[in-house]
């Protein structure tokens, strides 16, 4: 069986774990939410969270849903309770401060709760893989 046929049958690349693939998907989502766009001539990056957060009330409430999705996926991947609690705390901070007009919009650009949470999840699984001797090649 060739490498490409093995990949096609398993639905993943050879040597890449399922959590690693799922975290990669979550990193893409977090990028769109927190840092997909750049203000020309600056190093300031922002995502859909900051962009739609300008809409009072509705924007911040709706844009918490992708963060909750990341939290649910982390739970399904087997993230420990304390990690999930820390991730939920990041989401709560983002939501509470995000509803404050103007201050919340500026905060969203700097805090980046989704990227922060996915980085915590990635660090946990990388640490777990190193401890078990199954760390992926990066």
Summarize the structure.
A hairpin with a 6-residue loop joins strand 1 (37-38) and strand 2 (45-46). The chain has helices spanning 3-10, 18-34, 48-52, 58-62, 65-76, 81-98, 103-111, 113-132; strands at 37-38, 45-46.
Describe this protein's structure:
There is one protein chain. With about 140 residues, the protein is an all-alpha fold. The chain has one domain. The protein is built from 8 helices and 2 strands; from the N terminus they run ααββαααααα. A two-stranded antiparallel ribbon has the order 1-2. α5 (about 65-75) packs antiparallel against α6 (about 80-100), α5 (about 65-75) packs parallel to α8 (about 115-130) and α6 (about 80-100) runs antiparallel to α8. Residues about 1-10 have low confidence and may be disordered.
